[in-house]
Design a protein that fits this description.
35% strand, Phosphatase 2c, domain 1, alpha+beta, Methane Monooxygenase Hydroxylase, Chain G, domain 1, 37 strands
Length: 655
């Protein structure tokens, strides 16, 4: 018996999400589609979201991404949370919930992001559609040759970023077969006119419009920074046939299976008797052929049972892996939401749970044969990438994609092995331990100059003082090289005994401070006419094995084990290690100045630079694949740029 099952309208969609790689990224956008996954969700239908945040400052780029993804996840979660609601009630509840999230973001100081938010929600079930929208996105309905601007149904009043009701109303309607809906961010009008959209969306297939937009975006003179676009088309689902199980006494398609089987067996029996002449075998065939077939079936069952058992085991393991991956993704999403609300503890805890889950999935897939596990391995790798991204977010890891190379000293015709970097005005100065030369790089002209200061003295350490470079050459002498290319030498009284014990030097308020790790002193030298007069500024047992010194009024000292010590007025007031993963295992150069927000730490072992906020203990990690052997660093007074010395290379990047 045939049963014809006629379904309602089906919605086919195509999406485009575009970010122009050649333009400055000042906006983020996305298309999010959620289809019903079970019977309960099917009652509510499918959900399609398209969003954009524009006019984003570089520092808020990450926040904008989070807002867009959080908003989409929150709407989806609330929409499917109560299957007892109808689709309209579910969408209203989801948008009301999103207003609460957005209002909270405004209170946290992100009103500029909410002010520049464009967002459209479409809920589709059977032949009904409900649309909620805020901002300036375009939305058109094309039906029987007529195109209607459905975005006009929404009042796009100017958002101040203060309103607690970003989404305020919903438009609903019935869809017909062959209706087309076109939703896009407002930038679409820069590459294609509404008349062209109307013309192309009327074609038998929406594929031409989709390809036209993609081609426009691929053109070199494309002015758009970012674009999100959604094209939907309604059609009737094809009829499906459901076969009913026949009763035993019924005939299927007019065939009596029992008689047919007997007839076939009889024919096989006769053919065997004709071909086999042996009387012994003929006697065997006197038995009914069905018995032979039954024995053959048992033989095949015994032969194939190990394979079937193994396949069932593999299928069970793959299903288990898929379930673990789903749970892992849920943990990652919850971790992202916790991080948005600055709940670091919950975000890290959820990520640890996700790590454990994906490790279990790895263990299961390891035991599968290569022919079976390929798809599972690919899915696990995708989740691992998401895990790494979330780890970076939690640990405030910034991957430096645009690392500007200032100079490569290995390409010079002469040998120069820099041990430190200094910046004075618009030039960088590099010094080396093995000579009395300075290497100067003019940052405006990119012209290098090798400056000769001494044939017998070499330079151990350097600092910047007023408009001069200060270089320590021996226990009793320093060189001061001015911006006017003049230099003088000054004596240190008393002398430093042994420059090997002096690990670093810093300048503050026209005084020089030397870090003596062997004698566990911080020495302060003040200028006189022809010499610098020194005294012990601080003495503490904790200064043993110290490595570097930086001053902003307080003095910070780093130790070999990564510990930071803070001194005020000659007294130690704090000793701490940064709470960071991976931890600092070997201390290096540190840098800060008066009025700087951060203390910067060079971590050469982990190939990164850390920015430690001195007010709220927040840590940002700057990493790059190009970092190899970090030696020294310099940060501009406005904390916008970092110059870093890596072997013979000097790099610059934005903070």
């Amino acid at each position: 018996m045939k049963i014809m099952n006629l379904r309602d309208l089906n919605l086919y969609f195509q999406e485009i999400v575009y970010h122009n790689p050649s333009n400055k990224k000042d906006c983020v956008c996305g298309v999010f589609s959620y289809e019903a996954l079970n019977i309960e969700e099917t009652k509510l239908g499918n959900l399609y979201l398209i969003g954009k945040i524009s006019n984003i400052s570089p520092k808020k780029q990450k926040n904008a991404d989070f807002v867009l993804n959080l908003l989409s996840s929150a709407i989806k979660r609330d929409f499917y949370s109560d299957p007892n609601k109808n689709t309209l009630e579910a969408l209203e509840s989801a948008l009301q919930g999103s207003n609460i999230y957005l209002d909270d973001f405004v209170k946290k100081g992100h009103k500029d992001l909410i002010k520049n938010l464009d967002f459209t929600c479409l809920a589709f079930v059977k032949d009904n559609i409900h649309i909620g929208q805020t901002g300036k996105a375009l939305a058109y309905l094309f039906r029987r040759g007529t195109m209607t601007n459905i975005a006009r149904k929404f009042t796009n009043k100017e958002k101040t970023g203060q309103s607690s009701k970003v989404f305020s109303n919903i438009a609903s309607g019935k869809l017909e077969e062959n209706d087309r809906i076109f939703v896009a961010t407002e930038e679409i009008s820069e590459i294609i006119t509404s008349q062209k959209v109307k013309e192309m969306i009327s074609y038998p297939s929406t594929e031409q419009l989709y390809e036209e937009i993609k081609n426009k975006l691929e053109q070199k003179n494309n002015p758009i920074s970012c674009l999100a676009c959604l094209i939907l088309e309604t059609r009737h689902k094809p009829e499906t046939v459901i076969e009913q199980e026949p009763k035993l006494e019924e005939k299927i398609f007019g065939i009596d299976l029992e008689n047919e089987l007997k007839l076939k067996v009889s024919k096989i029996d006769n053919k065997l008797k004709e071909k086999i002449k042996s009387k012994f075998l003929l006697n065997l065939l006197e038995y009914n052929a069905p018995k032979y077939l039954f024995m053959l079936f048992l033989f095949l069952a015994l032969l194939l049972s190990p394979y079937l058992i193994q396949k069932t085991s593999y299928d069970s393991k793959i299903k288990n892996i898929d379930n673990i991956i789903k749970r892992t993704n849920e943990k990652i999403e919850k971790s992202k939401i916790s991080l948005i609300y600055q709940d670091q503890f919950s975000a890290k805890s959820l990520l640890q749970q996700a790590n454990i889950l994906i490790a279990n999935a790895n263990n299961i897939v390891f035991d599968l044969p290569n022919r079976v596990k390929q798809v599972s391995e690919e899915n696990i790798e995708k989740v691992k990438k998401d895990l790494d991204l979330q780890k970076n977010s939690i640990n405030n890891i910034v991957n430096i994609n645009q690392l500007e190379e200032i100079v490569d000293l290995s390409k010079n015709t002469y040998s120069f092995n820099p041990s430190g970097i200094l910046k004075l005005k618009d030039s960088l100065y590099l010094y080396e331990n093995s000579s009395g030369f300075l290497y100067k790089m003019d940052l405006e002209t990119k012209q290098p100059t090798l400056i000769f200061l001494s044939s017998k003295d070499t330079f151990k350490l350097g600092a910047v003082k007023d408009n001069s470079i200060v270089l320590l050459s021996s226990p009793e002498k320093i060189y001061i090289y001015s911006i006017n290319d003049n230099y003088n030498t000054y004596l240190l009284k008393p002398d430093l005994q042994n420059t090997f014990n002096i690990k670093d030097v810093a300048e503050y308020n026209n005084n020089l401070y030397f870090l003596d790790s062997e004698n566990k002193h911080i020495l302060k030298y003040s200028p006189n006419e022809t010499y610098l007069n020194g005294s012990i500024w601080a003495s503490d047992e904790s200064l043993i094995n110290s490595r570097s010194i930086a001053i902003d009024g307080n003095i910070y000292v780093s130790k070999e084990n990564g510990t930071i010590i803070k001194f005020t007025q000659g007294n130690k007031i704090k000793e701490f290690k940064l709470n960071i993963s991976p931890e600092i295992i070997k201390g290096n150069q540190i840098f800060t100045k008066e009025n700087m927000k951060n203390l910067y730490i060079l971590d050469s072992e982990n190939k990164r630079i850390l920015a430690y906020d001195k007010n709220d203990d927040r840590i940002t990690q700057y990493v790059s694949d190009k970092f190899n052997n970090l030696i020294d660093l310099w940060i501009t007074d406005d904390e916008k740029y970092i110059y870093v010395l890596d072997n013979h290379l000097v790099y610059k990047f934005d903070i």
